[in-house]
From TrEMBL:
The lineage of its organism: Bacteria, Bacillati, Bacillota, Clostridia, Eubacteriales. One of its GO terms (molecular function) is ATP binding. Residues 5-230 form the ABC transporter domain. This is ABC transporter ATP-binding protein. Keywords: ATP-binding, Nucleotide-binding, Transport. It comes from the Bacteria. The keyword ATP-binding applies. InterPro entries: AAA+_ATPase, ABC_transporter-like_ATP-bd, ABC_Transporter_VariousFunc, P-loop_NTPase.
Length: 284
């Protein structure tokens, strides 16, 4: 299968924060979610991919081409949604679109106007006069109107209301089915990823903890619940744990916890992505 993105051993040293040997890849036609606690390096990784920051070492390829040597060609095929102000200020939406559209050979004004209508945006308004959510919607419309093959988004859903968030996720799935595009997006809303993601990459303190299919991930772990006096004897099996008034809850690798159910009152459940992220990032 053809890879649309390959990140290999990429590092960046900010002094008090280091992104260390980050590696993951994505094939055509799939959605990957990038998750991790605040300050773990998700935005830094996305900026490095987009060459908005220069890497210290490692290799980044998009569509089998180096992301810097072939930057202009590559960016033609990328839709980028970023939680920062990437458009010039003081301009009406219509003018911003007129300014940006000529940079893309495949810009489709009909598609753009369709999104503007669908997202209920007013082209006569200035960008700075839009709400946070409306700004993101405009950014999404701009990113999708040149029919990108890879859509890269940094926390696109964080300022969106739940109804639009759901519509947006459906829109992404539709684009992937019809055009075989690929999507990478970072988010703290793990329930969004449970709806659409094929792959999950988890970054913690600048390192990739896992990059796996969503299905394998939730099969590989189990949420363990039981009495303190029982589970205290199995601490080594638990990746992370917390004590509550009912007993102990923790996470364990599926293949290491079968014998736990031989103990009275121990329950094994399928974890949510949030459970996995919580216990893996709070492990000692
Ligand atoms: N330009 C910079 N100079 C120095 N340090 C930086 C710079 N940009 C980011 N950092 C640091 O790099 C670390 C990772 O930041 P990053 O924005 O990549 O995290 P994140 O995972 O996207 O976080 P969040 O979920 O809060 O958005 C943080 O400690 C941040 O302070």
């Amino acid at each position: 299968m053809s890879k649309v993105l390959e990140v290999k051993n990429v590092s960046k040293d900010y002094g008090d924060f280091k992104l260390k040997n980050v590696s993951f890849s994505l094939e055509k036609g799939y959605i990957m979610g990038l998750i991790g606690p605040n300050g773990s390096g998700k935005t830094t990784t996305i900026k490095l991919i987009m060459n908005l920051l220069s890497k210290d070492s490692g290799e980044i390829k998009m569509f089998n081409k180096d992301h810097i040597a072939d930057e202009v060609k590559i960016k033609e095929k990328i839709g980028f949604v970023y939680d920062g102000d990437i458009y010039p200020s003081g301009m009406k939406l219509e003018k911003i679109a007129k300014l940006i559209a000529p940079f893309y050979k495949s810009w489709d004004q009909h598609i753009f106007e369709g999104y503007i209508k669908k997202f209920r945006l007013n082209l006569g308004k200035k960008l700075e006069d839009l709400s946070k959510g409306m700004k993101i919607k405009f950014s999404i419309a701009m990113a999708l109107s040149h029919k990108p093959e890879l859509i890269l988004m940094d926390e696109p859903t964080s300022g969106l209301d739940p109804v639009f968030r759901r519509e947006f996720l459906e829109l992404l799935q539709d684009i992937i089915e019809k055009r075989k595009a690929s999507v990478i997006f970072s988010t703290h809303i793990t329930s969004d990823l449970e709806k659409v993601a094929d792959y999950i990459t988890f970054i913690d303190d600048g390192e990739v903890v896992f990059t796996d299919t969503y299905c394998d991930l939730v099969e590989n772990y189990r949420l363990v619940k039981g009495k303190k006096e029982v589970l205290n004897n199995h601490k080594d099996t638990l990746i992370g744990m917390k004590v509550n008034k009912f007993g102990i809850e923790g996470l364990a690798k599926s293949d290491s916890c079968h014998t736990l159910t031989e103990n009275e009152g121990v329950l094994l459940e399928r974890p949510s992505l949030e459970d996995i992220m919580y216990y893996v990032s709070t492990r000692d």
